[in-house]
Amino acid sequence: MSSREKTKVVLLACGSFNPITxxxxxxxxxxxxxxxxxxxxxxxxxIISPVGDSYKxxxxxxxxxxxxxxxxxxxxxDWITVDDxxxxxxxxxxTAKVVRHxxxxxSSENNNDDxxxxxxxxxxxxxxxxxxxxxSSYINTKxxxxxxxxxxxxxxxxxxxxxxxxxxxxxxxxxxxxxxxCITRCGSDPEKFINQSDVLYKxxxxxxxxxxxxxxxxxxTHVRRALRRGQSVLYLLPDPVVRYIQEHSLYSAESEQMNAxxxxxxxxxxxxxx
Length: 274
Ligand SMILES: Nc1ncnc2c1ncn2[C@@H]1O[C@H](COP(=O)(O)OP(=O)(O)OP(=O)(O)O)[C@@H](O)[C@H]1O
Ligand SMILES: NC(=O)c1ccc[n+]([C@@H]2O[C@H](COP(=O)(O)O)[C@@H](O)[C@H]2O)c1
Known about the structure:
Blueprint: E1 7-15, H1 22-37, E2 41-50, H2 63-74, E3 80-82, H3 85-88, H4 95-119, E4 123-127, E5 130-133, E6 138-141, E7 147-153, H5 154-159, H6 168-178, E8 180-183, H7 190-196, H8 198-202, E9 207-210, H9 220-228, H10 239-247, H11 253-256, H12 265-273
Parallel strand pairs: 1-2, 1-7, 2-3, 7-8, 8-9
Antiparallel strand pairs: 4-5, 5-6
Helix pairs in contact: 2-10, 4-6
């Protein structure tokens, strides 16, 4: 399959990134390798979308710091970017809505590309939604619009089963319409979980299981704990992130108590309507 025939994919990771770790970055590399190894996909972009402060997770520090650390971590990447749309919303945004927002952006950007291709006067043939621009031998089709996949760890997939955490229609939309690239994580058994869930089993072909053979339990929770105890976090996080944390004295016993008495936004939202 030539690279032009491959489906373009954008990987979107939603999470706390409190703080961003090397494992978060590695997830993107693993998923890109896995998808491209199939010979059917070309991963064109990775997006990191830190959750907003109104998510109310215990120990969640301000989004401005989490965003800045994510930006520092990806400053040398030529394909992973950070997006602040989600974190700028006044209320917590369901992941399905975040995915939809980015899918719409990608679609509108791609449609603009079509218009530009036509406007540049190089259009030779318009056939079955296919615009062939001969001078650059660039073929742009409606099918060429990159497809969005949610990138997550197996714990997020398994959290779909937690009562009042996810709306069933959101799970259906994320898995059925977009698809998920899921990185294995110690202590999780995503294949078993998929088999036990009717909706995940129905859409199992849209779930790309990405195995991390070098089992790696770098977690943001562990990093925050080490920081509270004055232990080194070097090599767990990108160096500029370590420096940023030191400069701003982030992550203390006090910051870990943030939202300690709050109810996580999805529970607040879905429990009260039941
Ligand atoms: N070691 C890991 N292996 C696989 N996936 C991971 C790993 N660490 C984080 N992820 C994934 O990265 C995404 C963003 O993670 P997020 O920051 O929300 O949680 P986290 O890193 O598990 O942090 P915390 O420890 O604070 O819960 C999630 O999809 C999560 O599953
Ligand atoms: N119903 C939902 O859309 C829903 C529920 C729980 C977590 N999430 C998202 O999952 C991500 C990871 O959350 P945790 O850091 O709590 O694992 C966050 O971006 C959060 O917004 C979404």
